[in-house]
Specification:
With 360 residues, this protein is of the alpha+beta class. 36% of the residues lie in helices and 24% in strands. It has a domain of 96 residues. The strands form two sheets. It has an eight-stranded mixed sheet. It has a six-stranded antiparallel sheet with strand order 11-2-3-12-13-14. The longest helix is centred in the N-terminal third of the chain and has 18 residues. GO terms for molecular function: acyltransferase activity.
Length: 360
């Protein structure tokens, strides 16, 4: 099983977006439908979601006009309104807005776990599980595009979303985990997925990535773990501020779904509902030897853990639960920042073998 791959041939944002929207129309429509169902179950009306999408598009256009153009192009190609594609890109912000209003019920055992190890010699060693709601398991796509000549970006993202996890040929890669903070609000601002996109398009260092994150006003929280050949930093983003968590003296940087910065951790929200994030962080720390291995398959297997007797790093959905409480490890991903490539396995670590990796 592999994820769909699309390579853009267009260089200008509007044309690139239209090309993508045309080729991935059916998948984008299914993705939008899946998110519409998720927002409805979580407690948001269609009119409210539209208002949030329009607001997110306006804020995006002010912060990154070329990316707003690309969203408009995707909508054009897919036969949608731009606000509908903005909704896909702002799904983190919309869920945070619903939660801020007290309507959301987002308990469960899933979410993402990220490991980066910078060895004393040799390439950076990374691996991440990407957990999301199982009815959206067909949303991901592997997308290659060239934002400017000679700079290639490869990203694992959701159809219609401008970026998520990825690498660029400047030697930088990003992992992506959701966070929740007391300052998250319904005052829709720049989507965090667009921050990841600009980092992939523009940054070659952790410091440059952090500057891009600090330039955006946000309404929801996330952590973008940035890695280069000799450096790494978990860029924790929230409306209360941005902090960069460096690797430890051993070169290890681990992140799940709670804030590690002491100041931002005072406003922690995610772990209130999902304390398993701490169990997953401990699991990663306990398996650092495997996560440090040069072999990505060994690193992926070191992530393996199933609840309730072990940390639920590898999530499997309970079909009896409503869709907003069903979690599945949809992908396991390792980055090769030196080559500007990634390897992706469709599913969780419990099914990884050397033969299941998709090279991208």
């Amino acid at each position: 099983m592999t994820f769909p791959v699309f390579t853009s041939s267009q260089s200008e944002p509007l044309a690139r977006g239209k090309e993508l929207g045309t080729h991935l129309r059916d998948q984008i429509l299914r993705n939008l439908s899946g998110y519409t169902d998720l927002f409805t179950v979580a407690g948001a009306s269609g009119a409210r979601v539209r208002a949030w999408g329009e607001r997110a598009l306006d804020r995006s256009a002010a912060w990154a006009p070329r990316l707003a153009e690309e969203i408009a192009g995707i909508a054009w190609g897919a036969g949608l309104e731009p606000w509908q594609v903005a909704v896909v890109n702002a799904r983190t912000e919309i869920l945070a807005a619903i939660d801020a209003g007290g309507a959301a019920d987002v308990t469960g055992d899933g979410e993402c776990s990220t490991s980066v190890v910078l060895p004393a010699s040799g390439p950076a060693r990374t691996v991440q599980t990407w957990d999301w709601h199982d009815h959206l398991r067909d949303a991901p796509v592997l997308w290659e595009y060239e934002p400017f000549p000679g700079h290639v970006v490869r990203t694992f993202t959701e159809a219609g979303a401008l970026a998520k996890i990825g690498v660029n040929t400047a030697g930088l890669g990003v992992h992506f985990n959701i966070l929740r903070h007391g300052s998250d609000s319904a005052d829709m601002a720049v989507p965090v997925h667009l921050i990841a996109r600009r980092i992939l398009d523009e940054a070659a260092t952790v410091a440059q990535a952090a500057d891009i994150a600090r330039s955006a006003e946000v309404s929801a929280s996330t952590v973008i773990t940035v890695v280069t050949e000799g450096d790494a930093g978990a860029v924790e983003i929230s409306p209360a501020g941005v902090s960069v968590i460096p690797p430890g003296p051993d070169g290890v940087l681990l992140h799940c779904n709670h804030f590690l910065d002491a100041g931002l951790a005072e406003g922690e929200r995610h772990a209130t509902d999902r304390p398993f994030t701490y169990d997953r962080q401990r699991h990663l720390r306990d398996h650092v030897d495997g996560l440090s291995d040069a072999d990505l398959t060994v690193r992926a297997l070191a992530m393996l853990g199933h609840g309730p007797d072990d940390a639920p790093v590898c999530a499997h959905p309970d079909p009896e639960m409503p869709i907003n409480q069903r979690w599945e490890t949809i992908a396991t991903i390792g980055l090769d920042v030196a080559a500007g490539r990634m390897r992706v396995h469709q599913g969780g670590p419990c099914r990884v073998t050397e033969a299941t990796w998709q090279e991208f």
